[in-house]
## 1
Amino acid sequence: MEVQLELALPSGSGKGSDPNQDCDQRKKRSFEEAFMGVKKKEVDDLHETLPLLIWDGNEEKKQQFDGELLEQKHIPKLAISNNRNAEMEDNFVVVGWPPVKSWRRQFCHQISHRECTTNYVNVENNGGGGGGGRGSNSMYVKVKMEGVGITRKLNLSVHRSYHSLTAKLIAMFGICEENVEKYKLTYQDKEGHWLLARDVPWETFIHSVQRLKLQKMATTFYS
Amino acid sequence: MAYSFPEEVLEHVFSFLSSDKDRNSVSLVCKSWYEIERWCRRRIFVGNCYAVSPGIVIRRFPEVRAVEMKGKPHFADFNLVPEGWGGYVYPWIAAMSAAYPLLEEIKLKRMVVTDECLELISKSFKNFKVLVLSSCEGFTTDGLASIAANCRHLRELDLRESEVEDLSGHWLSHFPDNCTSLVSLNMSCLGSEVSFSALERLVARSPNLRTLRLNRAVPLEKLANLIRRAPQLVELGTGAYSAEIRSDILLNLTEAFSACKQLKGLSGFWDVVPAYLPAMYSVCSGITSLNLSYATIQSFDLVKLVTQCRNLQRLWVLDYIEDSGLEALASSCKDLQELRVFPSDPFGAEPNVSLTEQGLVSVSKGCPKLQSVLYFCRQMSNAALISIAKNRPKMVRFRLCIIEPRAPDYLTLEPLDAGFGAIVENCKELRRLSLSGLLTDRVFKYIGTHAKKLEMLSIAFAGDSDLGLHHVLSGCESLRKLEIRDCPFGDKALLANAAKLETMRSLWMSSCSVSYGACKLLGQKMPRLNVEVIDERGPPDSRPDSCPVERLYVYRTVAGRRIDMPGFVWTMDDEDSGLRFS
C-alpha cells in the first residue's frame, strides 16, 4: 500500500487557497495564539491536517476489484438464511447481534423459557427447557470463556456427565493441559443466578442450566 | 474594550447561558471573557472521559457544581467491549473531592463505579444532590447504602439500567429519618427486595417526590399503599404487575391511581396480569410517556391500554403489539413523537409475532409528530422505507434493526440502499441513524451526500469496500460518533480521512479489515488522537502488520494516552511504535 503524505488545509477552507477567504479566517487570533503564547506559524503547523493517503478519483474503479479481494479475506460471511440451525452446526454465534442490551437479553431468555416449558414435550433422558429446545431433542446453550471474544454454542443433550462436558469444552476452546486448572465452569440457572457447575449433581445442573461460562479462577464476577 | 463592563455584569449576563456551545463561544471572544466565563461555569459535560483529564478540567473550571460524563463506547452495551476495558470514574471522583467541595451533581453513563467511589462521593460533597448512574457497573448495594446514609440533601438517586451487585435490600433503610429531600428515586435495575416498610416511610416523608421507579420485587398488592402516600407523583415505575386476581386488590389499586392527578409517565410492568390493567385507566388521558417494553401481554391488551392514552408522546413496547396494534396506535395517539419496538424473541429463527414493516409504515402515516424511532423487525422493503421517509421528513432519530444480518428487501431481493437513501434525502434534520439489512457502498454515497446534520451513525454487516467508509467520512459534515462492526472497511478510507477523526468524538470499528500497520501509522501521525487497538489474541506485534486488528477505537483527546489500559488494549503512538511493554 502506497502512502502519500500531503499537507492539506482544514476542510472548512475548501480547495486551494483563496486569499480573501484565508484573510477572513485569520483575522481573529486563534485560541492557541491568544492564550498559549503560540506564534502564528506554529499555530498553522498545529492546524495542518494530513490526509495520510490521497483518495484518488480512480478509487471507485479500483475498489470494484479490491472489493472482491477484501470479501475473500477475513470477514466471516453469514449465510442469509432464516434457519438458525445452519449456524448452530458450526457452533458459532454472532456476538452482540441483534443489538439488545444485556437486561433485555436476559429478559427475552426468560420469556422464551416460559414459552418453551408450556410447549415442551418431555423427551426421555433429556433435560428441561434450556435455551434452544424448540421441540427438538437438542439443547443448545451459549458458552463464553473469559478472555475470548466469541461466544460459542454447545449441544448439552449429547452429554451425560461433567466429565464428557469438560472434555468437549477443552476441545472447543483449545485449552491446553496446564491451563485447565485455571478455569472454573459456572452456569446461569433459570432464576438468572450464576452458580458453580460442579457444586450440584449433574441432573440438577442439566435441568436448570441456561448458559455456561468458563471463568478464570480468582476473579470476582458480576452477575 | 474588556474594561467597559464590570466583571460582575458580564458574569450575570453569562449566567443566562446554559448551553456548552454558547459558553465555549463566549470564552473565545477575548482573554477577559475567557477568564470570567471559566470562573462562572457551573456545569460541565465530558462526552468521553478519556478526551480530557481531571487536572485539565479542574484547572480551567474551578467552580463546577455539576459534572456529566460518559465512559465506554456505545457498543459496550452489546458485549463488544471486553470486560476490564476501562471507563473508571475513580480518578475523577478523587480529584473532584479535593477541588470541588461544593459539587452537587454527578451523572455518569457507561462507567465503572466502585463502592469506594460512592463512599468518597457521600463523604466529600456536603451539598450533594443528584446521582445518576446510567448503564454503569462495578458497585454493590453497600455503595448505595453510603449514599443513602451520608448525603443529607439528596434529591435524585437514579440507577437506570446499571449492573449492581445486589447484596441485599437493606441499603434503602440507610436513609435517615430526617431525610425529606428526595425528588427522584429509580431503583428499577435492582434484584433484591427492599424492606417495604422502610420504602413506605421514605415515600411518606418525601413531599417533593416526583419520580419513583420501583424494582420487580415490589409486589403489586403493596403498590396501592405506596402510591397512596405519593399522589403528587409525575412518573411511576411499577414492580411486578401481577397478583392473584382479587377484587379488593383491584379496587385498592384503582382508587390509588385515581388520586394521582399529575401522573405523566408509567413504566415497569414486569409479569403483567391483564386483569389489573384497568386499574390505570383513570390516569391514561394524562399519560405522555409509557414504557411497556417488559410487558409480555398480547396485542389485544396492549391496544386497549395504549389507545386510551390520547396524549401519548413516547411509547416503548414489545413486538407483541404487532402490526394491528401499531395501526390502532396510529389512529389514537396523534401526539406520538417517539416509538421504540423491542423484540420479544430476538434469537429465535422464525418470527413469533405478526410484526412487520407495515406497523412502522402505519405509525409514520398516522402520527404527524413522529421524530424518533427504534424498531426491531424481521423484514423490510425499500418501498416501506421510502414511504416512511416521505411521510415524516422531520425525522430526527431513525434506528432500524432487521434481525437477520444482510437481509435484502423481502419483496424485490434487492439491497435496501434506495430505502435508506430516501430516509437521508428526505429527512434533512436527521441526527442519528442506525442501518441494517443488505446494503452496498451505494447507501453510503447517499448518506455522505445528504446526511449533513447526521451526528451519530451505526453500521453493521454492510458495504462492499473502503469506498463506503470514505463516503461517510468525507461527506457527513456533522458526524461526531461513528460505530462500525463486521464491515469490509479497511485502511485506505481510514488513512485518507485521518483529519476527519479529529473533528469527531470517536470512531469504533470491530471485525473490519483495518490492519495493524494502518493503526500504527494513524497513531504516529495523529498525535491528538488516541488510536487504541483492542485485541484478545495477544500483542499485535506478534502478527504481521497486514493482519487486521479485532477492534479499533479512535478518539480525540487532549489528555494523551491512557494509563489505565488492560492487557488487551494497545495505544498506537510515536513514543514506542505502538508496543507497550506490560
Note: Residues 389 and 459 of chain B are 19 Å apart (CA to CA).
## 2
Amino acid sequence: FCLLQQCLGTHEVSCDLYMVASSTEPQPQAKGEKTPISDTSYVGIDAILEQMRRKAMKQGFEFNVMVVGQSGLGKSTLMNTLFKSKVSRKSVQPNVEERIPKTVEIKSVSHDVEEKGVRMKLTVIDTPGFGDQINNENCWQPIMKFINDQYETYLQEEININRKKRIPDTRVHCCIYFIPPTGHCLRPLDVEFMRHLSKVVNIVPVIAKADTLTLEERDSFKKTIREELRANGIDVYPQKEFDEDAEDRMINDKIREMIPFAVVGSDQEYQVNGKRILGRKTKWGTIEVENIAHCEFAYLRDLLIRTHMQNIKDITCSIHYETYRVRRLNESNILFTSNPPDHPAVQPKANGQPEEQPATPQPNGVAAQHEALSHEM
Amino acid sequence: MASSDVARQPDKGVRSLSLAGHVGFDSLPDQLVNKSICQGFCFNILCIGETGIGKSTLMDTLFNTNFENFESSHFEPQVKLRAQTYDLQESNVRLRLTVVNTVGFGDQMNKQESYQPVVDYIDRQFESYLQEELKIKRSLHNYHDSRVHACLYFISPSGHSLKSLDLVTMKKLDSKVNIIPVIAKADTISKSELHKFKIKIMSELVSNGVQIYQFPLDDETVAKVNTTMNGHLPFAVVGSTEEVAVGNKMVKARQYPWGVVQVENENHCDFVKLREMLICVNMEDLREQTHTRHYELYRRCKLEELGFKDTDSECKPVSLQQTYEAKRQEFLVELQKREDEMRQMFVQRVKEKEAELKDAERELQGRFEQLKRLHAEEKAALEEKKRLLDEDQSSFGKRKAAAQLLQAQSLTANGKKDKDRKKKNDG
C-alpha cells in the first residue's frame, strides 16, 4: 500500500535517517468492505478522510459574510438569492424623517441552514448607512472597528485559561463590496474603503445591478476597475500572495481575470422555456440570474460557496486573524515595557540577568605593592 | 487539524431557515477534506511495554511495513524513549506517523521511577505545542504536531492480573494521553484464560480508577461498532511480519509445530479489531481528544502554575496579557533588587579586602621599619667595632712604629755602645 516511505529524524535517543521504498501497489478500499483475505496490504489510513467528514458534519460549519455598499444597490436581494432564502430583510422604506441613518450601523443576523445533512450557521452582517451621508469621510471606520472587535473577542477567548472547547467564530470571513454600475471607474469612496479593509478581511468586489450595463460596457468597466485596484495596491480575494501551489495559482488566476463579478439578484421566479428560474422580468426580456450568459451570479456563488468557502475561512483564520494577533500582542508589549520581548512566553526567563561581576577586587595598587614586597622578601 | 472551531449546537436565539433550492454548501465537508489531503495528516503513537514484548513487531504488522527496529538490550540503566518518524502514503492520503517506543521499560531492579521518562516526554510535547501557540508570530497550521495521540500499553500475558508497574504507570498517564491497553503475545493464552484475564484486567483498572480510552459513542454511524469494541477491551493481539501459506493463500502468521496462529483471523486474536479501532474508525477522535481534553488540561495546569488566572482577587476578568505584564514588572523589580544586593555585596567585599590589604601593608611597613632599625643598629655596632679595630690597628701601628724606632734606637745605641765598648776595649 505504501508508495513511499521515509523515515525522518528523531527527537530522542538514537535513530538514523534512512529511506525505505516499498513496491506494493496502492489498493484503496471503500469503507465498510471486509478486507479480502488475499489482500495483505491494506491498512486503512485513508479511512481518516471519512472520519474527518463525519466529524465536520456533526460539528456543523459557520460562515460570516458582510455586505457593504450604498443603499439601493441590491445587497439584501443578492444575499437572498445566494442562499435561496430570506437571510436579509430588505430595508423597508422608513419614514422620511428617519430615512438616512446618521452613522454607519452594523446589523448582524444569524440563521441555521441545512443542506443534505450539512448544517451551517450563516451570519449576514449588514451595514446600512454606508456611503449614504453627505460627508462620507471615515465611513469605513465603524466597519473596521466591528471587524477588529470580532478578532478581539476571539483572541480574548483564545488566551483564556479556561477556554471553551469550540470557540464561537464570529470573525468576518468575507466582505462583499457592492460597486455601483456607473460604467466609468471606481469612486474615491470605493478606493478608500477597499484600500483600508483589504488588509484585514477578504474583500470580494461585485458590480451591483449589472443588468444596466451592456456586455461591452461591462467588460471595459471591469478592466478599469482591475487596473485601478492594481494601481492602488488593493489585494482583493483571491489574493495573489496566498496561492499555495501552481495548481492553486492557475485556478485563482482564472478567477482574478473575472473579478469583479457583475451580478444581478432576484428572489422572484419566472417561467422561462418551461422551467421556473430566478430572474428579473422587464419589458424587453427576462434576465436569468443563474444564466452565465446574462450575468456572473453563478460564478460568484460557486466561488463563495461551492469551491472556495473553506479557503476563505482559512485565510481569515490563519492570515488576517494572525496578523491582528501579532499586532495586538506587540502593542500590549510596547505599552507596558520599553523593550518588547520576542514572545510573551510562558516562562518569564531572565533575558536581562545581570552578569556576575568578578569577585576579584581591583584596588588601586595595594595589591601590586603587596606583590612586589613579597617578592623582595 | 481544522483551525477554526465551530459551534457544536445551533444557538438558541438563531432561527432555522429552509432553503428554496440547491445552494451548494453541502460541498463544504469535501472542501475541508481536500484541504486536509493537501496538508497531510499526522499521528503519534506511544508504545509502552517491557523489552521483548512485541511492540515493534506489532507496529510493523499494524502498518504493514518494516520500520527497521533493532532489538534493545535488557540492561538499560534507565527507561528511555526512542521516537521515529515516517511518512506513509495510502491512495491519496499522506500520513506522518511517529512511533515512540520505550526502551528498557521494566528491566531495572528498581522500577519506581520507570514512568517518569514517559510522563516527561508527553509533557515535553505538550510544552512545545503550548510554546508555539503562545508565540507572537506563530504558524500553527504548519506546525508538526508531536503530541502523543494514542498510547498502546502492552500487558504481559501472565494470565493472572496486571502488574503493579502497569497500574502505577497507567494511573500516571491516564490524564495525559489516550491509553489503549493491549494484551501482547496473546497466542500464549488459551481462550478461556483470556476471557478471565480480560475481565480481571478491566475490573482492576476500574477499581484503581484508571481512565482508559473509550471509543466514542456519540456518532450514530459508529456508535454500534464502538460499543461492541469497548466490550472487547483490552485487545489480545499477536504480531507477525512473516507470511505462512494457509490453504492456497499467504497470510501473516506465526508458525508453531502444533499449528499456525493467523494474525488477521478474528478467531485467533483481536488484531483486526485493534487496527479497525485505532486507524479506520477512531484516528480522528483520538487526535481530537488529545487536543481538546489532554492538551487543554495541561495548558490550564501549566498556566495556573505560573500564576496566570482568568479572574483576579476581586473576581474581575483579567486578561492573560495584564497578568503577564504584572508578573513581568514583579520579576523586573526583583531582578533590580537582586542586582542592587549583589552590587552592595560587591562593594562590601571590596571594602573588606581593601581593609585587609591595608592591614597587611601596615604590618609589612612595621616589619620593614624594624628590620631597618636592626640593620642600622648592627651597622652602628659594626662601625663601632671597626672603629675599635682601627684604633687597635692604629695603636698597634704606633706601637710597632715606636718599637721599631726603639729597636732602631737601641741598635744605634747598641752600636754606639759597641763602639763605646770597643773603644773602651781598645782603650
Note: The domain at 35-304 of chain B is CATH 3.40.50.300 (Rossmann fold).
